Amino acid sequence: MCRTFLILFSKSKAPTLLPTQGGFHEITSLYNLIAADKTRYIELLDKLPKYQYMFLRPRRWGKSTFLQTLTDYYDKGKKDYFNDIFGGLYIGKNPTSGRNSLLVLRFDFSTVSGTGTPNTMREQFDLMINDEVTRFLEQNQAFLRGLKLELIHNSHGAKSLKEVLVSRRMFHQVFVY
User: Fold this and answer.
1) Which of 9, 74, 152, 176 holds its CA 20 to 30 A away from the CA of 52?
2) How are beta strands 103-105 and 174-176 bridged, if at all?
């Protein structure tokens, strides 16, 4: 994915960056960045017993960045980097009990083309699901008690996903987006 930024020049002659695209963990490490700390909303979400939200906003209004923020906050695999990512932000100073408590499984449906034959679209869908499930298994081996890549069914992404999520060795909550 291409990362682009709008560069403005301030009186200090140092460029000021306005993020126009990119993930949360990338933009928090930029110097002289103009951004709003929206991490206080994580605390509000965590106070609710269960939540499912649909983010309906116009393009370029931060939906993906907010989901990446949630990913970085809840991901067990990023526990050692919590202070690097969130240390200077609201949620870094006020962490909740949900911090670094989930395994994260992310899907990017933009890689599945809406054009072509139904078989081509199905193949792209299966490939995307299998790629993400494989990435999930590889990145979370320390937490998954030996869950193996043999659960991946090359020609059937939904079957692979079901096998992993309902496996008897999956004792973790999973954040799926």
Assistant:
1) 152
2) parallel
Identify the three-state secondary structure at position 5: strand
Q: How far apart are CA 102 and CA 106, in angstroms?
A: 12
- What pLDDT is recorded for position 73? 93
pLDDT given for residue 113 in this prediction: 84
| Per-domain boundaries in the chain | 38-176
Burial of 162 (0-12, 13-18, 19+ CB in 10 A): middle
Q: How confident is the model at residue 15 (pLDDT cuts 50, 70, 90)?
A: low
For residue 77, the Cα-to-chain-centroid distance in whole angstroms is: 12
Instruction: Please answer whether residues 42 and 70 qualify as being in contact, where contact means their C-beta atoms are separated by less than 8 angstroms.
Output: yes
Spatial CA neighbour of 100 closest among 76, 83, 71, 82: 76
Taking every pair of Cα atoms in the chain, the longest distance, rounded to a whole number of angstroms, is 60
Q: Which sign, positive or negative, has the C-alpha torsion 1, 29, 62, 72?
A: positive
Q: Which pair of structure tokens corresponds to residue 134?
A: 């494989």
Q: What is the pTM of this model?
A: 0.73
Q: Per-residue pLDDT for 11 more than 50? A: no
Please provide the size of the chain in residues: 177
Task: Quick: pLDDT tens for 57-70.
Answer: 777 777 778 888 88
CB 173 within 8 A of CB 102: yes
Token pair of 21 as six digits: 């695209």
